[in-house]
């Protein structure tokens, strides 16, 4: 049996700490789905070797050369965030809270819908993004941190015209408004109507890239719209917005596409 020295234990502890920190950094971001996809490719490579699938093994072996370079590009925001936190000494800061109960979800939906009704009546443009399963840390860091409990008065104040936070999106995580004035990726769908402004394209963009729900109040028409899964529903009333949001937020967030599409997923209640 090889002897284990204190130096070896220290080495293992440092490596474990680094892996743990990397997992914390990618948690709550789109990098989680990318990491899961890479894990699936690795599992497929191992299976191809065990089952001696020569062609599949040859293809995946070439991907193994490209993946390390691709990881540096894909995880560039997370790597930059890690270095910044190391410089600030904030490596072990807490990041996420728990999920909302049904009563808190209903209260959140009522506040968002009521604020949208008031903003729509005043023809005040607004863009609110409600985070679900996919984290929006990269979006939050592009805006101004707020970290306040959501209320009708707070949302109306955030989008008051000619204020610094009026332009941009407000990101809601749980029942807290974590940031405002955030920048969102614009949708690149070439089939969108030319009448859609930047807010609507940004709402569609974030709903295409993540499972978040975006609510838009048009500054020109006062119409309330909702973007989810790359689809835009326009002209919602306050009650329609409540019902739609409650249906999306009260149920578990959708999972990633199944590896076996012929197996039907259980229906949500």
In words, what does this structure look like?
With 269 residues, the chain is α+β, with helices and mostly antiparallel strands. It has two domains: 6-88, no CATH class; 102-249, 3-Layer(aba) Sandwich (YojJ-like (1). The protein has helices spanning 6-26, 31-50, 54-74, 76-88, 102-121, 137-140, 152-158, 198-209, 238-249, and strands at residues 126-130, 144-149, 169-173, 176-182, 213-217, 224-228, 231-236. A seven-stranded mixed beta sheet has the order 2-4-3-1-5-6-7. Helix 2 runs antiparallel to helix 3 (54-74). The radius of gyration is 22 Å and the shape is elongated. The chain starts with 5 loop residues before the first helix and ends in a 20-residue tail after the last helix. The model is unreliable at 90-98 and 253-269 (pLDDT under 50).
Topology:
Blueprint: H1 6-26, H2 31-50, H3 54-74, H4 76-88, H5 102-121, E1 126-130, H6 137-140, E2 144-149, H7 152-158, E3 169-173, E4 176-182, H8 198-209, E5 213-217, E6 224-228, E7 231-236, H9 238-249
Parallel strand pairs: 1-3
Antiparallel strand pairs: 1-5, 2-4, 3-4, 5-6, 6-7
Helix pairs in contact: 1-4, 2-3, 5-7, 5-9
